[in-house]
Automatic annotation (TrEMBL):
Pfam family, one: Lactamase_B_3
Name under which the protein is recorded: MBL fold metallo-hydrolase
Origin species: Paraconexibacter antarcticus
Signal peptide (residue range): none
InterPro entries for the chain: RibonucZ/Hydroxyglut_hydro (IPR036866), UPF0173_UPF0282_UlaG_hydrolase (IPR050114)
Top-level taxon in the UniProt lineage: Bacteria
Membrane-spanning parts: none
PANTHER family associated with the record: UPF0173 METAL-DEPENDENT HYDROLASE MJ1163, UPF0173 METAL-DEPENDENT HYDROLASE MJ1163-RELATED
Length: 333
């Protein structure tokens, strides 16, 4: 879908609705938190149907670890959570090696680290992860500059959209995409290309968005699609059906018609919600929820598009290596 000349006016016209939604959230905050917690518990109990030997673990926010044939892919890993004081005070935002040892210790070789865009909550841990494991990161030109700044520029590949990358048992393709406009639907936070070339300057604002990608992964007959932010370039979304859509849901209300548009092209069997959690809370703390994310009503949004589309979430991350990741079972409903 190409933006038209009236899109800007439409965005402004929607601001009162966004403000009203925020006001309702403030008035109902405690009830919303309980409802979201109950919904998360229910969604996390629903097993995914994955091929034998394939495991999928949620790392929080938009991060995942996908393992097959003893090899691992990381997608947007983010465990070195940035506290609010660093976000507001512009303090350095850097990876925490101790948290890497607890949460990013793979069971075997790392076939690759895939990065959908370079905001801090998607990319802060990537250079250190590649340094520790010897893995290569795949993503945008901004990712390449990030890796260079941390002294691991040789471990970065600037991807060609739609080109197939064979990484161990995985075949990966990157598709051009877009980031949702989170600030009342007006602006992408920290938009533009990452330019900082030394680590002293890497506060949260230095992790600029860069090019955004949806990531398609095939392994063992399974087809997954990862979208870390709830926006899209319609004609770039692959068609033909995917088994599992890993969907970041924060900001979805700022993208008009998001679910009908993207689900109509992906035609997924099941949608797995992510990026609904409070990404400023420590990764080992109980799961909190993003501002006005309204996880409790999300299954109804999917059902309004197609009642045959399954919905699920994965359990919250736990330190000490893999713990009962999704590895099989019946199809969620």
């Amino acid at each position: 879908m190409t933006p038209g000349p009236l899109d800007g006016l439409g965005t402004v016209a929607r601001i009162p609705g966004h403000l009203a939604s925020l006001a309702r959230f403030v008035a109902e905050r405690q009830d919303r938190r309980r409802a979201d917690a109950d919904a998360f518990a229910e969604l996390a109990r629903r097993p995914l149907h994955l091929p034998a030997g394939v495991e999928l673990e949620w790392l929080g926010t938009a991060g995942y670890r996908l393992t097959a044939e003893g090899q691992t892919l990381y997608i947007d890993p983010y465990v070195s959570r940035v506290p609010p004081r660093a976000l507001l005070g512009r303090r350095p935002a850097l990876a925490d090696p101790l948290l890497h040892a607890r949460f990013l210790t793979p069971p075997g070789p790392v076939a690759g680290v895939l990065v959908g865009h370079t905001h801090f909550d998607h990319a802060i841990d990537v250079p250190e992860l590649c340094r520790r494991t010897g893995a290569t990161a795949y993503g945008s030109a901004s990712l390449g500059r990030l890796m260079h700044a941390f002294g691991v520029g040789d471990r970065a590949v600037q991807v060609v959209p739609r080109q197939a990358y064979e990484l161990g048992p995985f075949v990966v393709r990157f598709h051009r995409s877009a980031h949702s406009k989170l600030l009342l639907g007006l602006k992408v936070p920290s938009d533009g290309e990452l330019t900082c070339d030394h680590i002293d300057g890497f506060n949260t604002g230095a992790y600029r968005c860069g090019q955004v990608f949806g990531i398609e992964i095939e392994v063992a007959g399974l087809r997954l699609y990862h979208q870390g932010s709830a926006n899209l370039l319609d004609d770039e979304v692959p068609t033909g059906g995917v088994d599992v859509f890993l969907a970041g849901i924060a900001g979805r209300r700022f993208t008009p018609g998001y679910w009908p548009r993207i689900l109509g092209r992906l035609q997924p069997d099941v949608v797995v919600a992510s990026h609904f959690d409070d990404f400023l809370r420590p990764v080992d703390a109980p799961t909190g929820f993003s501002l006005n994310v309204n996880l409790a009503v999300w299954p109804e949004e999917i059902a309004a598009v197609g009642r045959d589309i399954g919905v699920a979430a994965l359990p919250a991350p736990v330190s000490g290596g893999p713990r009962a990741p999704a590895s099989g079972g019946t199809r969620p409903t």
